[in-house]
DNA sequence: GCGCACACGC
DNA sequence: GACGTACGTGTGCGCC
């Protein structure tokens, strides 16, 4: 393999980094900009150059051999700013963590070390790369030695090769020093010849070759004045050349084999980055705490081939391992149980066959601690085993304590609590295509380690939950909800497959015809689904005006295309094509792909521990974004039907739940009054914002007021509002201001919650759900503004999420106590979708609004609308 | 395999 | 006044 040596001019790069970046500092007030820039440069080099050898050279002390020939060398230099000097220690630490050798030599500059080593390396057949911010180094360039000089910032460089130098200066690389001798260097206080700058120097060297040849032939130089100067400062020019010449035979006591680069020390890099607050770099490197330093102590456990009372104790921690992301009808790889009697691994088939296990699992009195209990409940459910008594779910506890923390696997949450005797699933199972189930003994140990960690985590979490006043949220809301979600997921919702197929056929035909029209209007065939190709057709071939560009090209999003609709007939076809294409690929084909063919049902998976606000999310398929706004899309809902003939789909949704929550928490008299009188809130908002009477509210005013309310609920900025209303940001800002004047209680709330968040570092919902917002103190306007909107919005959206979750729990109880067969199948943020036998409709009409409206008591009534019909489409 | 642009819902 | 702006999931494209 070819050898590649990278030599870095440490002082120079640190200087460049320091002046290129703003004066960043970490949480302890230590300045970090030079180290940060240095790190960025180092990371780029390692990635792009992939060196086999590396060295960073530093200047040693204040005086060098150059001072003995010219005492004023580097005189008059500005003192290194203290903000920079203090960072050199960290730069050295950084290099040690990266295991990059560093070197300095008494009496010599970094340049000389680099020069000496680069020549040595070249002789031994290395490819050499020199990195500096100082153009002096370019004199080293040869066919094998490239010199990178930082241009702008720290990572943007010019590569000086002999060819590049020839082209740039018109002289060979080895004449750079002659140029310096003539023109001098103010930064190093090298005098040169007064009156000679770069241009004159180059002109002279092109004519005479070297400095020496020039000085011997000064009489031939054109221009009397120049002749005189050259004569007068002959010796000074020679001296200057000497000073500028890099010493290539410095007594470097550092052999090339000592510069071998073997990779960085992950642990040290992690710790240093943590200390310096380089969180973005940590993420970029994808390294976690002591990833390669994990020392697993031996662990004792028993592989059981049969069950005993010891294994099946109450208060056990249990892992039911399902490796696949989608746990419906998936294999269970193995089971681990940890309790006061010990640690056990149970092969899946033994457990599934065992009546003892079945009984123990289903018995409510046997309390279980788990991680992602919903996954276990559903997976076991498919195998005919009912898992009850799930008392403590560490995944949920971790999410409640801090929804921002990654809840990827047990190792992640365990490490956050200082437990390091468990490996990450990714390490044990692999990732991507290589992911697979390991041998039983490896699996057994992994699962037992996970269970042991959970066992310990439970105690730690209970303490934290109580401390945060979140224990009730955990035990009374999220834990019971997990069971309800498990039941909803297992139940699934029936899909009318033939209906979807016929819709697909119809849409397919329309798409084909639209495609044909588009090709005709474009005058050629292209991929309409490719924004890139579409952009070329619209903005280059058809010459439509470019309204907006994206990072990668022209924007072709719907709102932009709509602005162009009257400019060319192709636009309308493209918009229709997009709309139908989305229906076809996502909702027809996508849905058909995930229907279980034997039952014609889809079983979504709700993620209960993902969103920062407390909402659920839905995947595989996502049943929370089935079309409704446009009629063509809405028809997709005709394919969602009850699982029994003559049953109905019953849908109930909260009316304006977020704004009601806002009225409550902001305690705004005007808003409370509006809801107490059951006013149309958008009309009411329009009346107040536009100062008009009810009968003067135009549909446009109401539309704008609705957008403002939307903005309040979702925490969008004036910019966001301006985009949705297609008005200027200034006007959008005025709307918001007028809104806040009309609802002074809301205004006060918005101000207080931001202060509150600043002081406490987090905001809370009605039921004590937390969201930490550290960015609220950021100095960057954007980051801080976003944090402020988050602070305002999260209690609103999060409390609404709390309320519907509470309603789901109350609903499950009520359906049970009323002995009903109706079932809740889906939750879509503010609505619940049921399937119900016809003879239960009447009672649902009574109890569903009752339960939902009384989930919590606010200063305003909660209002629920409901509807039912033979399909989801009809429940409108 | 991944990031981007786009589009759907609340 | 900068800067890039609610949260999710899924799809196809185009690059590596």
Explained architecture:
- This protein has 5 domains: 4-171 and 246-259, 5'-nuclease (Rossmann fold, 3-Layer(aba) Sandwich), CATH 3.40.50; 311-490, Nucleotidyltransferase, domain 5 (2-Layer Sandwich); 494-602, Up-down Bundle (Taq DNA Polymerase, Chain T, domain 4); 642-667 and 764-876, Alpha-Beta Plaits (2-Layer Sandwich), CATH 3.30.70; 669-742, no CATH class.
- The longest helix is centred in the C-terminal third of the chain and has 37 residues, at 781-817.
- It is globular.
- The protein has 876 residues and is of the alpha/beta class.
- The protein has a 6-stranded mixed β-sheet. Strands 7-10-9-8-11-12 form a 6-stranded mixed β-sheet. Strands 21-22-18-23 form a 4-stranded antiparallel β-sheet.
- Residues 288-292 have low confidence and may be disordered.
- Helix content is 49%, strand content 12%.
- The protein has 36 helices and 23 strands.
């Amino acid at each position: 393999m070819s050898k590649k040596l990278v030599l870095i001019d440490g002082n120079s790069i640190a200087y460049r980094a320091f002046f290129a970046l703003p004066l960043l500092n970490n949480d302890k007030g230590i300045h970090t900009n030079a180290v940060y820039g240095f790190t960025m440069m180092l990371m780029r080099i390692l990635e792009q150059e992939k060196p086999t050898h590396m060295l960073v050279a530093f200047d040693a002390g204040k005086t060098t051999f150059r001072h003995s020939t010219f005492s004023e060398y580097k005189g008059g230099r500005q003192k290194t700013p203290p903000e920079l000097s203090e960072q050199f220690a960290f730069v050295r630490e950084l290099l040690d963590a990266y295991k990059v050798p560093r070197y300095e030599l008494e009496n010599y500059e970094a340049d000389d070390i680099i020069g000496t080593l680069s020549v040595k390396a070249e002789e031994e057949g290395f490819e050499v790369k020199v990195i500096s911010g100082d153009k002096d180094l370019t004199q080293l360039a040869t066919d094998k030695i490239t010199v990178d000089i930082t241009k702008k910032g720290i990572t943007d460089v010019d590569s000086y090769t002999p060819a590049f130098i020839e082209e740039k200066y018109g002289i060979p690389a080895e004449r750079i020093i002659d140029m310096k001798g003539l023109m001098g260097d103010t930064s190093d206080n090298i005098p040169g010849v007064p009156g000679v700058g770069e241009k004159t120097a180059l002109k002279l060297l092109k004519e005479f070759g070297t400095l020496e040849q020039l000085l011997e032939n000064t009489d031939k130089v054109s221009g009397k004045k120049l002749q005189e100067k050259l004569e007068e400062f002959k010796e000074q020019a020679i001296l200057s050349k000497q000073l500028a010449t890099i010493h290539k035979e410095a007594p470097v006591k550092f052999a090339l084999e000592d510069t071998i680069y073997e990779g960085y020390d992950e642990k040290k890099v992690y710790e240093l980055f943590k200390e310096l607050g380089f969180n973005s770099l940590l993420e970029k490197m994808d390294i976690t705490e002591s990833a390669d330093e994990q020392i697993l102590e031996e662990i004792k456990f028993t592989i059981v081939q049969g069950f005993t009372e010891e294994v099946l104790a109450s208060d056990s921690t249990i892992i039911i391992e399902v490796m696949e992301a989608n746990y419906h009808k998936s294999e269970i790889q193995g089971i681990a149980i940890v309790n006061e009697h010990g640690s056990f691994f149970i092969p899946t088939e033994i457990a599934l066959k065992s009546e003892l296990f079945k009984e123990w699992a289903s018995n409510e009195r046997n309390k279980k601690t788990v991680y992602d209990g919903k996954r276990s409940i559903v997976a076991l459910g498919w195998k005919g085993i009912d898992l009850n008594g799930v008392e403590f779910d560490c995944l949920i506890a971790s999410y409640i304590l801090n929804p921002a923390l990654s809840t990827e696997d047990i190792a992640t949450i365990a490490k956050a609590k200082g437990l390091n005797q468990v490996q990450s699933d990714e390490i044990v199972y692999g990732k991507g295509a290589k992911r697979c189930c390991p041998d039983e003994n490896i699996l057994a140990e992994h699962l037992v380690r996970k269970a042991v960690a959970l066992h310990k985590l439970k105690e730690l979490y209970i303490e934290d939950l109580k401390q945060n006043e979140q224990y009730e949220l955990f035990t009374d809301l999220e834990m019971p909800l997990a069971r309800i979600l498990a039941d909803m997921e297992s139940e699934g919702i029936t899909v009318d497959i033939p209906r979807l197929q016929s819709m697909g056929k119809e849409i397919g035909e329309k798409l084909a015809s639209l495609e044909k029209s588009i090709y005709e209007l474009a005058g050629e065939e292209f991929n309409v689904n490719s924004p890139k190709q579409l952009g070329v057709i619209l903005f280059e071939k058809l010459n439509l005006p470019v309204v907006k560009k994206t990072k990668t090209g022209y924007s072709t999003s719907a709102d932009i295309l709509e602005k162009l609709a009257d400019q060319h007939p192709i636009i309308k076809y493209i918009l229709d094509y997009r709309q139908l294409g989305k229906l076809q690929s996502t909702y027809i084909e996508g849905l058909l792909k995930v229907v279980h063919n034997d039952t014609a049902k889809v079983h979504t998976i709700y993620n209960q521990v993902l969103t920062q606000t407390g909402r659920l999310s839905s995947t595989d398929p996502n049943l929370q974004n089935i079309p409704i706004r446009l009629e063509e899309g809405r028809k997709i809902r005709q394919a969602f039907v009850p699982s029994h003939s003559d049953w109905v789909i019953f849908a109930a949704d909260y009316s304006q739940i977020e704004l009601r929550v806002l009225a409550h928490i902001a305690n705004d008299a005007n808003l409370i009054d509006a809801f107490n009188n059951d006013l149309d809130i958008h009309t009411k908002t329009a009346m107040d914002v536009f100062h008009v009477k009810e009968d003067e509210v135009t549909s446009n005013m109401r539309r704008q007021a609705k957008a403002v309310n939307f903005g309040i609920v979702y925490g969008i900025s004036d910019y966001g509002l301006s985009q949705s209303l297609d008005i200027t940001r200034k006007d959008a800002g005025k709307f918001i201001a007028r809104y806040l004047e009309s609802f002074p209680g809301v205004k006060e709330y918005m101000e207080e919650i931001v202060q509150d968040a600043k002081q406490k570092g987090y905001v809370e919902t009605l039921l004590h759900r937390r969201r930490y917002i550290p960015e609220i103190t950021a100095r960057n306007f954007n980051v801080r503004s976003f944090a402020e909107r988050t602070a305002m919005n999260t209690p609103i959206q999060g409390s609404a999420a709390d309320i519907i979750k509470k309603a789901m729990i109350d609903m499950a109880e009520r359906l049970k106590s009323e002995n009903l067969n109706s079932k809740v199948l889906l939750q879509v943020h503010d609505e619940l979708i049921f399937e119900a036998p016809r003879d239960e409709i009447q009672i649902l009409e009574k109890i569903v609004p009752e339960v939902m409206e009384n989930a919590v008591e606010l200063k305003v009534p909660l209002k629920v609308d409901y509807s039912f019909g033979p399909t989801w489409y009809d429940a409108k």
